[in-house]
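Question thread 4412

I'm putting together a teaching handout and wanted feedback from people who do this every day. The idea is simple: show students a protein as raw sequence, then show them the structure tokens that encode its fold, then repeat with a second protein so they can compare. Below is the first pair exactly as I plan to print it.
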Amino acid sequence: MGILKKLFTFDDNGYKDEFILTHKMPAAEYDVRRESEEAEKTYVYNNIEENLAYIKKRFTYPINNDVVIREIMMKGGRRAFIIFIDGMVTTESVNEAVIKSMQELPYFADEEIIDKEEEITQKYISHSQAAVNSDFDSICEEVNFGSCAVFVDGFSTAFLLDVRGWGTRQIGKPENEQSIYGPQEAFAEMLRNNTALIRKIIKTEKLIGESIKVGRVSKTRGILMYISDIANPALVRDVKYRLNSISMDYVIAVEEVAMMIEEKPNMITSQQLLTERPDRAARALTEGRCVFILNGSPRALILPTNAFELTSSASDDYLRLPYANMTRFVRFSAMFLSVLLPAIYIAATLFHQEIVPTFLLYSIAAARENVPFPTIVELFLMDISFEMIREAGIRMPSPIGSTLGIVGGLILGQAAVSAQIVSPIMIIIIAITGIGSFATADYSLSWTYRILRISFIILAAFLGFYGIAIGIFLYSVYLGAQKSAGAEFLSPVPKAKSRSMTPSIFQNAIFKREKRPSFLEPESKYEEPKISRGWKRK
């Protein structure tokens, strides 16, 4: 009973008013992160030879052949060296702003060294971003991330210069969230490019971007963005707690972060919203949500979300009211057909023939007269074949994949009907189901539809429409017991006058969306005045 109660009941734990985790993970007996924090740090030596030996040992030089160490003789005979990783820096910046500047530095007497450390970056290094650091761990981390470190004899600090310049993919159009209207830019793999795309849309100093490193070894850099005078502070604290609690050696993509911080990993419906569109991320920020961007990932993670928002498309905000509502109606119809059409066919033909028109029932019976398999076997056979074609089309190169999907589906369906392995009506059912699964707004939902479709088919095969009704009830209750970053996953449908990524089941006029989503408990509840069209007054 305890397990069933936990699965099918919702305990808000105060999440509606405060996004604060009430449960804490017990302290581990052995934690690598705690060990690294307690380990004695190594600081930059005062002697150039010791620093050079340490750096060579740390970076396995010269075996590690993309690590470049360049020794420099400054004026007055003072020695220095720089270290950077080839391919991650701009060579012109290193030559002009680092090496040339170092060679032009005047000679300092020993008694002036302490007084002149900061003056080197202020007066003589011609680079926009320069910092001083004495911790070898921090210095090596910056070098691994594309900075250039400068060591000078007699100085117990290193000078870090941001000369990053690795190759990047150009900003292109969205591939999975395409829209005819609205901006046509998509995130790429560069962290700063992605944050700049959002800041280009939201031009306010209230937009905060906090740096968060994920991964004990990889130290993958990410940015948590939110608008300080809109986002609920408790929500921001909860999201930061989850991100900082991730204990992994290597984190490569933001999808891994999403799986690490989700409430129920085994839930078939995704509890996180990932987007490749900067305009959608900016829209989420203006509503009071948090957006997490990870270096190397072309998608942003939006927290929190709910079940209704996963069915919303980015293009809905840019369509006129009748067009947007028509699109949403078609999308909901496709969702219904993708999940329930095969199960309804099974239930109607096996248990409830009385609801099928007589002539249609005769047609179905005649089509299946020579089919050797039961209806359930016939349905699973075609469904699995369709899924195989879909997966093969995704894995193959684009020109071949599209051709394989079309030709494979036509040939397989025609051959199966000709061989009397399946009936023509079953081909129609599978085709409509497949098309409906492609009409989803979020790609993760297509996986949810596949799993739900199989579950409802099995229930319908045993209990007919009663099984379908039981399945819908159990899944709805199960969804109601879930949360996304502390917010109820089945948050109440926003009212008509609410502005949200999903304003309501159907779209409302843009000038009537006055409030931000109430379930987020934003600091500022109103986004626009009651009369936002100042030209039209009563």
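The second pair follows. I'd like the answer to focus on this one:
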Amino acid sequence: MSSPLPVVTRAPRHAVELVTRGLGVAGCVGIAVFSANLGATAWQVFAVALLAVAASIPLPRAWMRYAGLFLEALLIAVIVVASPAGLRPSLVYLVVPPIIAGFSIGIVGVAVTITTIALVLGVGTVLTQEAALPLPVVEVSVWLAAAVTLGLATVLARHLQNRLVPIDPGYATARALLSSLRDVARILPEGLEESVLARGTLAQVAQILPLQRAGVFMFAPSGSLVEVAHTPEDAPALRPRPDRDIWAQAFDLGSAVQRLGQLDGLELGTDHACAVIPLRLDGQLIGAVAIERTGGLWSIDELNQTQEALDAAALRLDAARMFEDIRDLATLAERQRLSREIHDGIAQQVAGLGMIVEDISQRTQEPQTATDLARVRELLTTMVTELRLSIFDLRVESGHGIADALAAFVRQAGTESGLTVHLVLDEDPATMPVGVGPQLLRIAQEAVTNAHRHGNGHTLWVTYRASPEEIFLRVADDGVGVGSSTGRSDSFGLMIMRERAANIGATLSVRQRAQGGTVVDLSMEPRHVHTPTPRMPQSDQ
């Protein structure tokens, strides 16, 4: 496994500059105090201190800070040149600009400041110190060499710090955790696929309890119970009722509960039996397994043995659910990127091509060519519509609300078709079961598109409400209507809408509007859950 990257705290740039300049002034003061002629060097100390204070004033733009640093190097070199040889405490401050340049700019900054200082010192020393030339040359050269050395050392330290310190320590931690997760997933015998682990759990339960139908349910972040696997696969899915009946009893007790009858009805006195067995992990409820059979109740020993097996399986299922959440978060950014690329790329190009075809069709004089171009234009319009539907699909995050995407689509469709749009939205995204949002959006898109293409109306009404009690969608228009209570039997779009509604357990109706037009209604129960606080039993009864 990969070890975490070392974390080193990066010092603020301005603080480092203040400390460096402060040490430079302190060194200058120290040499001046211990010199034989304090009066002759006092002006240098004052000039260096004034220069350090002026150079420490924060500047708003980077180029201003860099220009100020190079000016600081120029001025300290002038101060040194103006000082008498042998009485130059200001020489200490020569190392300050290269150090700061190495920290804030890098090797280029060090080269520029050193070059500036060397040119001023070289020219100034030759012009002003002819009488005692060897002494000032040696004196200046020593401090200039020190400036070069310290400047390059700062560049090296900056390079090593950048190699050791992540740009954002949070990403370093995330990388280490993801690396560990990858290594663990490779060695797990069953991997981290939630549906695979859930089916394995059902197989384990079936070895202990005789059953005819069963399902594994996990709590989603929204609080709803989501089915992740059921057996047999061709059997109808079980519908959890966690806030009532046997479900609520099992969650309140925190242990297995059984009764005669089926999960969706009491039916006492029959030979049907059902049970709900919670999935428990560290004193919390993370889901449940529901089972049904024909043949009477199970024994207490069988239920206790199954509860123990599910307690052991809960850790695997919870880890798989967390892995699923991480994967969803990772794909969300990619979905957003793809939607932007489609919108800014191929969708715009196809729309532009349609405009070109429209322009050519208006200039042509041949009827057959005009007819062919009209067909091409219609196909391009269909392509643009489909691309936009795909963009909206990509922008809807699984398990979250669809109000924003639906509003954007309806307003855009109304603008393009000239329809007057009345939009009512009232959504609590937390009530949306996982995977339902994209299906609802597609049904709404199909209904709006049908109203535009086939309704020939002037007004469109779209109502969408999502609450803990019900999810309701209505798309109505004042066009020609469907002509029957069931809709047109030959409409492929209506058939797809009904299939999508059936897949999410919703009821869809298409009917004639009383004042003329079509009304498409969809309703479903979001199966909202008030997550119970588990009370773990002292003993299995």
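Top answer:
Good format. For the second protein you could add a caption like this: Residues 300-344 form the longest helix (45 residues). The CA atoms of residues 216 and 289 lie 5 Å apart.
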